[in-house]
Amino acid sequence: MPPDLMLLASYPDWATYEDALYAAYLETVAHAGLVFRGDPVKVRYMPESKRKGYGFWHLISEAPDQGNRDEDERIPDLRRCERVRWVAWCIQNSHEAGFSWWENERGRETHVVIWAEEHDFAVVLAKRLTQQGPRFYLLKTAYCLRSHTIRKFTKERDAWRAAQKD
Questions:
Q1: Nearest CA among 62, 125, 63 for reference residue 90
Q2: Which positions of the chain have pLDDT values less than 50?
Q3: pTM here?
Q4: What is the Cα–Cα distance from 111 to 9, expressed in whole angstroms?
Q5: What single string gives the DSSP state of each residue in 126-143?
Q6: Element (H or E) spanning 39, and its range?
Q7: How far is the C-alpha of 84 from the C-alpha of 25, rounded, in Å?
Q8: Per-residue pLDDT tens for 115-148?
Q9: Residue 29: other Cβ atoms inside 10 A
């Protein structure tokens, strides 16, 4: 089962909630030493905004529209906020029943999508190589899935799995 949700109603105000979310993010993700398929998972800290790392904002908020890349205009998504502790849970359990993962190409990047299917929640990692060669994964985002994304993910995952068998 996933970790308990972090509900806004449990906190006296937004600032206290945001600080609690960030503390949970630091503990369970940024400083947790997460590993996916034997390689470390890292987070992006810069550019920092409101004294909190870049990666945090991409876990708890979304752009107002797809063309808007202004980090200061991101809008908190309570469903993402509530599930901030689910990110580590998904990565750590990606090999278990009820989870699936696959690779996809986004622009020039290879991403890995980890899908907690029974909970309609996904974590996205980007594959990275260092100059010395060893690989790591950069946490890109995590979000709750809508029905059209579930259909898209199902097709994408199944196509990737079929291509792996060839």
A1: 125
A2: none
A3: 0.89
A4: 34
A5: EEEE-TTS-EEEEEEEEE
A6: strand 39-42
A7: 6
A8: 999 999 999 999 988 777 668 999 999 999 988 8
A9: 23
